[in-house]
Amino acid sequence: EDQVTQSPEALRLQEGESSSLNCSYTVSGLRGLFWYRQDPGKGPEFLFTLYSAGEEKEKERLKATLTKKESFLHITAPKPEDSATYLCAVQGAAAGNKLTFGGGTRVLVKP
Amino acid sequence: NAGVTQTPKFRVLKTGQSMTLLCAQDMNHEYMYWYRQDPGMGLRLIHYSVGEGTTAKGEVPDGYNVSRLKKQNFLLGLESAAPSQTSVYFCASSVTDYGYTFGSGTRLTVV
Fold first, then answer.
1. Searching chain B, which residue's CA lies closest to the CA of residue A103?
2. How far apart are CA B79 and CA B87, in angstroms?
């Protein structure tokens, strides 16, 4: 059974204070690891897909990296608008294109 | 191009009542999913569909039924609502090996 654990559950940052979110996973045949951003009262919004260990992707102040056991989402010099819940999910080899999600990390960036 | 549209956005049910949640996508995606999101539990898959006329059980299917009579629509039914089904429900759609596109959610309260 695929499993995803995210840490920490919550993160409070000052504007400009860089940090990293962790996503540890176990999966049978990784087809992809996904990062999403979710704002209060809204559906998750796709950020990145990583497919193999060593891969990195960047978008503005966000950078996602992948190893064989975990992924990190680095937030560089965050701004208040980066405040959101960040979700990690894995897609395994099972049929149906299904994603297994972690519990998320709530990030609050204070000005 | 609306993406994924969920109706209704909010609903209050009495225990034992029935209702149907509608999900519609205009991206010609083959795969569609219903998730529920509860505090501390993350997103959990209820049912999913890999194409028109197909449905399959996810992680937490009990108490729910689904139908996919048309490719663009995926319906989630609650035959006899229970307080444990109080949650936020998200529909999503995808193409193979791509990230999901989520709807904005339905907040359901069962009293």
1. B42
2. 16
Rounded to 5 degrees, φ, ψ at A38 are -130, 120
CA distance A103 to A72: 15
Contact: B102, A44; criterion CB under 8 Å: yes
Residues 6+ apart with CB under 8 A from A35: A23, A47, A48, A50, A62, A64, A71, A73, A86, A87, A88, A89
Contact B97/A32, CB-based, under 8 Å?
yes
Contact of B68 with B53, CB cutoff 8 Å: yes
> Three-state secondary structure along B7-45?
ECCEEEECCCCCEEEEEEECCCCCEEEEEEEECCCEEEE
**Which residues in B lie closer than 8 A to residue A59 (C-beta atoms)?**
none
The 10s digit of each residue's pLDDT in A57-83 is 999 999 999 999 999 999 999 999 999
For the stretch A3-58, pLDDT in tens is 999 999 999 999 999 999 999 999 988 999 999 999 999 999 999 999 999 999 99
